[in-house]
């Protein structure tokens, strides 16, 4: 018995049982929470990626909008020296390349990182407990549950959103974006060798522009939901949200097991 | 003496001087992007190789490809290549008509089995057993299959043969179908455009004669030497695009200054063709130079990409006037409103609970 701690381990109690059954909390997490007031969830590469990715998305949406619908015509220098659209596209391409590297880095970290770093990339489709928790979380968002449950990583509903908007969404934007970039880079260039097949598959790249543009709105919709849910849950749920994105530690507001 | 004449023989017979012939060879080498050392090779091929017989058939089309072809910038291309082609079969341009013309087709197929090039202008409609296009008393699709059977290679002239063009635009009632979806067992070169550039057309034929092989094709089966870059990549207005200087409305100050037509819906950034380098009508001009955006006529399904004057194209699946921005803004607005309402209810619920807790404490 650890008499020299401020917490009294309660061996008979099994904390976060439903979170464990859905594949969210690991045995280590549960042992950790017996001893400490927080669980360490997100390692530094995951947190760094989150914020770099967020910055990239902001730059990409902003510049992407002005690539499709450019700023009003300006004439403050000779055309050669006035690179307004050029810089807009440069920022878009630079942010996209950082995002690409980041995404591959994130995939690498999902392989070598801790249990929670993998949650973004899959949906535990065959786990019955997980589906039950999805519906529980849905009821919480429809105001039909008085109190939310505790989760170590993403709650099941958030996991679906993360997978659909980030894993699928970013993959879609990277594929279509690099195919469009391959057009400018030219046939035989590296982007063309890697992604040119998509140009051939789609045929008319005007379609690629269209679906890439729709993809931006898909991500914008995610941003609205994501930021709202993070702030709302930080206030109303029984655990930390926003500070977890910065420190990586999940803290809980009460000591009840579920 | 059943030998087939060479191209050079035909040219000389047409009264073309050797000097003009050499000019044609060097111009063609330049158009194909070959070094000057290839000029004698082209000349040699033209002088010694028996000319390649060409059968030129017409399906659902408007004959703009032929119109373009006979206006090739270099008159030799017109006189020579065209006269050589019409010697065999081209139902629009040949002297013979009716049964005589159909007999000429059969004779060419028999005589040059496996050696002739089949040039297809237009495409076959497949609906109602092909009854929407009848030539020589039979559905065109039958004639196409028949002529394709013994062809060495097929050239799909224009957007019709390559992609379907206007007759295949949605909803495509006649089920007009591009050639490569009907003939699947022959090498096919697509030369899209509505019409294709004349020099591109003669260039492709000359290349095939000189080197006895198909030109290098890109992923979509188009000759890479003419279709590997976009109009945008070689557009003389590109500096204005990079500078962010656009025509904002027809006839505005910027239009007069020759600024970029991107905002007027120019499809140059998504169109692969040689218009901005070879240009049209003996290199006089091309659409963007004359002040109108590119409409993307050499791209697959260009009729179905919304207005010629929009950059962000309409998506008719979501209503006639909807485009990606309208759909996206609507979705973001609905989600935003939903989030606001949800936040309000959440706040009320939380306040309600606090009062209840206080009551319980009391």
From TrEMBL, chain A:
Statement: the UniProt record of this protein carries the keyword Transmembrane: yes
GO cellular component, one term: plasma membrane
InterPro entries to which the protein is assigned, alphabetical: Cyt_b561_bac/Ni-Hgenase (IPR011577), Di-haem_cyt_TM (IPR016174), Hydrogenase_cytochrome (IPR051542), Ni-dep_Hydgase_cyt-B (IPR000516)
Assigned keywords, A-Z: Cell membrane, Electron transport, Heme, Iron, Membrane, Metal-binding, Transmembrane, Transmembrane helix, Transport
Residues annotated as domain Cytochrome b561 bacterial/Ni-hydrogenase: 41-248
Cellular compartments annotated: Cell membrane
Annotated GO biological process: respiratory electron transport chain
GO molecular function annotations of the record: electron transfer activity; heme binding; iron ion binding
Top-level taxon of the source organism: Bacteria
Residue stretches spanning the membrane: 48-69, 90-111, 160-182, 189-208, 214-231
Cited Gene3D superfamilies: Transmembrane di-heme cytochromes, Chain C
Keyword Lyase set for record: no
Topology term for the membrane: Multi-pass membrane protein
Main location: membrane
Similarity annotation: Belongs to the HupC/HyaC/HydC family.
Xref: PANTHER family: NI/FE-HYDROGENASE 1 B-TYPE CYTOCHROME SUBUNIT (PTHR30485), NI_FE-HYDROGENASE 1 B-TYPE CYTOCHROME SUBUNIT-RELATED (PTHR30485:SF0)
Name of the protein in its database record: Probable Ni/Fe-hydrogenase B-type cytochrome subunit
From TrEMBL, chain B:
Binding site for [4Fe-4S] cluster 2: 232, 235, 260, 266
NADH:ubiquinone oxidoreductase-like 20kDa subunit domain location: 62-207
One Pfam entry name: NiFe_hyd_SSU_C
Reaction it catalyzes: H2 + A = AH2
Listed GO biological process terms: anaerobic respiration
Keyword ATP-binding: no
Residues involved in [4Fe-4S] cluster 1 binding: 62, 65, 160, 194
GO molecular function: 3 iron, 4 sulfur cluster binding; 4 iron, 4 sulfur cluster binding; electron transfer activity; ferredoxin hydrogenase activity; hydrogenase (acceptor) activity; metal ion binding
Any one GO CC term of the record: [Ni-Fe] hydrogenase complex
InterPro entries given in the database record: Cytochrome-c3_hydrogenase_C, NADH_UbQ_OxRdtase-like_20kDa, NiFe-Hase_small_C_sf, NiFe_Hase_small_N_sf, NiFe_hydrogenase_ssu, TAT_signal, TAT_signal_bac_arc
Binding site for [3Fe-4S] cluster: 275, 294, 297
SUPFAM superfamilies: HydA/Nqo6-like (SSF56770)
Cytochrome-c3 hydrogenase C-terminal domain ranges (all copies): 227-308
Enzyme Commission numbers on file: 1.12.99.6
Subunit organization: Heterodimer of a large and a small subunit.
Designated name of the protein: Uptake hydrogenase small subunit
Organism: Donghicola tyrosinivorans
Lineage: Bacteria, Pseudomonadati, Pseudomonadota, Alphaproteobacteria, Rhodobacterales
